[in-house]
Amino acid sequence: MLPLPSSTQLKPKPSPPPRRRFLFLLPFVAASTYLLYLVLHYCSSIPPHHRYNTALHYTPPWLHPAIGHLVPHPGGPSGPPRIIPGLRSARPMEEWDVPLLTNPSYAPDPSDTSNAILTSPALLMLHIFSTPTPESRARRSLIRSTASPLLFIPPQYRHLVELKFILGRPTPIVGSSSASPLWNETEEQMVDAEDKMYGDLVRLEGLEDGENLNKGKTWEWIRWVGTRERVGWWVMKCDDDTLPILPNLLPILLANRPTIPSYFGTSLGHWTGYHFYFEGMMYGFSWPVIKTLATAPVPAYERNTQRNEDAFMGELMFSLPFLHTPSSGCLPEGETVMFPRPAGAERNDIEDKDDSKNEKQIVDNTNYALPPPNPDPCTGLFRLDLGRRLGDYDHAQGQGLVTGNMEDIVGLHGLKNDEDYVKVYNQFRTQLEEGRKWEWAVPDALRV
């Protein structure tokens, strides 16, 4: 038999005196208080719409309706997104095929048969928006010669990434003093010579004013991309003052299937007065979205609506055609398409008034400023929010909207002068080379 425990063994251990317990907890209380101070100080230093977007980005969807009511923001849309009938009735995105990536192949250039153009599918079409001005021409030259995104790609795989500059074509109006505002005969000659030398310019014909940003240029670019011979997986629009970091971006894209209708970019910093969208500094689409937007029977007056182009593109995502079999979260279409509200919004949105057959929505308008369900239950669209990995250069310098880890950042915007552009490019190159991550690590499945 085991001996009974002695009385000394049964004696309970005395608890530390209250003062000692307080001293033990004091460092944790101080650290928590300081952390709370830092969070509150950070929140007070950024604009209200940034606080609102950040709160939404870092909370689960089921909390979004509460945040919409509790976190102050400058205002939101007063109703559901405008639906464009020609886009809603377009060919569904699920019907478009996505090509297989192959070794490089070429075909004669129709405009110059002495040259060959690349026709094999692209993993990424990186298209930088530019203008026919001397300043933009200098930036294009800088990007080609000193800070090309293609330098991130091993030479034998550069056929997988297409780099183009997207410009309008201002034209003089014969017999009128109201020529296109950017028309300059000397500059047009310089741009034509540049295109003959490098072959990387795309001139969009027939734009409003010959060149614009917020009157249809983006949609016209998409129509050009989606109806040309070369096809691809991902298509990205990039401002010429944004530095894309492809070694960090390409693995993210490859982790997502291009067959899924997708829209990617960052929502942090977007203006809450519009429906959900990704900021215009750098955003893109998977191939099925491009094809549907490119072939939709939408008249020019609808495509050329005067709107902030990034907000307009985000709004178009709500007009995409429905899946053949929408998921259970999709509301019925009815006479007017209803906005697929976030989880938590109730279905009590129909009321009869004076025996009228008209439907009236009485859902709280706060819901219209919230991120939509992901993926969208009606269209199947997946919104890939890059969050803090994409943002403004000055924020990365100290305001905190972009992470400081260079191995996470996929793009920095706001590099207006050439010195900043080259400096930031070299900073990334130096740090990524130290970590042996300067060149894109090509996955085995894509290696020849």
Question: Summary?
Answer:
It is a single-pass type II membrane protein. With 448 residues, the protein is of the alpha/beta class.
Task: Characterise the protein shown here.
The protein is of the alpha/beta class and 448 residues long. The chain has a single domain (85-172, 181-322, 359-446), classed as Spore Coat Polysaccharide Biosynthesis Protein SpsA, Chain A (Alpha-Beta Complex). 32% of the residues lie in helices and 13% in strands. A seven-stranded mixed beta sheet has the order 5-4-3-6-9-8-10. It has a three-stranded mixed beta sheet with strand order 7-12-11. A two-stranded antiparallel sheet has the order 1-2. Helix 7 (185-198) links the parallel strand 4 (161-168) and strand 5. Helix 8 (217-227) packs across helix 10. The N and C termini lie far apart (75 Å). The relative contact order is 0.15. It is a single-pass type II membrane protein. It is found in: Golgi apparatus membrane.
